[in-house]
Design goal:
The chain is built from one helix and eleven strands; from the N terminus they run αβββββββββββ. It is mainly beta. The chain has a ten-stranded antiparallel beta barrel. A hairpin with a 2-residue loop joins β6 and β7. The N terminus is likely disordered.
């Protein structure tokens, strides 16, 4: 039980960037740039042996449109978590947008005096709908394969399912609010949640 709790504490406490999304399905136009600064709180859901205390997290990000219907981004936390991702537009209608992504997160925290390396590739599916010109609602679902390596131990593999619901206020600049929920299929399965907010600036 203790290793699982340590892993989730590292995952949530460090603001591991496979937990929050802070992205709608809209893809940036070619050569368009966007900066993001945000944070929130995360923790285990429920009580008992899987319960985790609420943990704060911070993150910054940069995103750029590469070509029509395709953009890439990077996000990082001050705790040593990084995520690199690309997003491809599948549908870009006047109101409705759908996109598919590919992401890899990397995290190397110190846990119980030992270094833990986590590499999390994931495939997210984005759906968003413009409620107003300045307001969009979005949902994200993704499957995550989590590879964990403790110093001196073989690599372990766990699977996570993560979903997010959010609101984006503003088009080129504004605020994003998001609730993220996840389930980990480890030796002791459990649920976790994260509540996030971020300011974004595009140019």
């Amino acid at each position: 039980m203790a290793p699982v709790l340590a892993i989730l504490a590292a995952l949530l406490g460090s603001g591991c960037l496979t937990v929050s999304t802070l992205e709608t399905a809209r893809v940036l136009k070619p050569d368009e740039n966007r900066f993001l600064v945000g944070g929130g709180t995360a923790g285990g859901i429920g009580t008992g042996r899987f319960a985790l205390p609420t943990q704060p997290n911070l993150e910054v990000g940069y995103r750029r449109g590469v070509r029509e219907g395709y953009d890439v981004g990077i996000r990082a936390s001050p705790y040593g978590a990084y995520i690199f991702d690309a997003k491809l537009a599948l549908l870009d209608d006047e109101k409705l947008a759908v996109a598919m992504g590919l992401a890899v997160a990397y995290l190397t925290p110190w846990t119980d005096g030992a270094r833990l390396t986590m590499v999390d590739p994931s495939v997210p599916l984005f759906v968003s709908y413009d409620l107003l010109d300045w307001l969009a609602a979005y949902g994200v679902a993704r499957a995550v394969a989590q590879f964990r390596t403790w110093a001196g131990h073989p690599t372990e593999l766990d699977w996570l399912l993560i979903s997010a619901l959010g609101l984006k206020f503003g088009r080129t600049s504004g605020f994003i609010a998001e609730a993220t929920f996840g389930h980990t299929f480890s030796s002791i399965p459990g649920d976790f949640a994260q509540w996030s907010g971020a300011l974004f600036f595009a140019f």
